[in-house]
Amino acid sequence: MPKSSLLLFFTVFALVVNAAAVATPITQQFKEAPQFYNSPDCPVIVDEDEAASILCSDQAVHVAMTLDTAYFRGSMAAILSVLQHSSCPQNIAFHFVPSATANASFLRATISSSFPFLNFQVYPFDDSSVSRLISTSIRSALDCPLNYARSYLANLLPLCVHRVVYLDALVLVDDIAKLFATPLGDDSVLAAPEYCNANFTSYFTLTFWSNPSLSLTFANRKACYFNTGVMVIDLDRWREGDYTTKIEEWMELQKRMRIYELGSLPPFLLVFAGNIVPVDHRWNQHGLGEIILAGICILVRLVFYIGVEKGSLGRGLMLIGHALWMLCGHLMISCKRHLHWIHDGGKI
Prior knowledge:
Blueprint: H1 3-22, H2 50-56, E1 61-67, H3 72-84, E2 92-98, H4 104-114, E3 119-122, H5 128-131, H6 153-156, E4 163-167, E5 171-173, H7 176-180, E6 190-192, E7 194-195, H8 206-210, E8 225-226, E9 230-234, H9 235-241, H10 243-256, H11 265-272, E10 277-278, E11 290-293, E12 296-299, H12 311-330, E13 341-343
Parallel strand pairs: 1-2, 1-4, 2-3, 6-10
Antiparallel strand pairs: 4-9, 5-13, 6-9, 7-8, 11-12
Helix pairs in contact: 1-12, 3-12, 10-11
């Protein structure tokens, strides 16, 4: 291994280890972000209680995210990027969903101190009901109840919110209003990045496909894998169709017979695959890797896509990408506008 590559690798490795070690959920420090203003052509949302008005307004862009203390830095970077790249940042309403066992007051205070002008509400997610439905998967991280909160957004968010963009943490976005405005047609419930070249059968077990009844689930659908980390959801249609119950029914079946190995994704596929509106793939950087470092799962977001890592240089570039990402979230350094590509896809 060339000495220069070795030096590069261990220098950045030390940076990442140090940052991961000191950035515990309680000790993380974030600078205050600047205030972002609407462009002149943005609709004006005014009421006696302006914050409450925006959180229920049909003219607002509603964004829902879960808040996990393990990925809180990524959530903060995502908020900053959403605001920075929006043409109407003052018209964005954030709906945050942490676990009911999390320190919601700390999360709320941290967000408020870094984004004093942010329109947001926090909705603690009581995961007791979904916990009994979760089956063990191929990775323990997928069994976290908060991963399933996206299935309960229609119940958690107020009825005045009719449409929402759901984003996983650790994302960078273009103008979120473009995604929010995705046409859903006459009856589609959600839109998401869809990948019909993926091996769809691999998302379910042989038990599922060999069952005469279950194997007909997708008989009349052109079912494709889609990423549930970037979704536009019509909450009214979701509520009318009682899709939370439909997802729970598949999870109950999974408890009785093993029909899939992954976490919260397969129930979504079983209910919606083949019936969604596909969105442009630029909203989802599909297939980037991740590094497991000292027990910490670090999702890698690169400034540019380097493909599969090759040798020490590839590993060094991956670590550099993560170090830059950490700076973006931890120090609130402005993310460049060309980093609009969004979300690291995968089979989660």
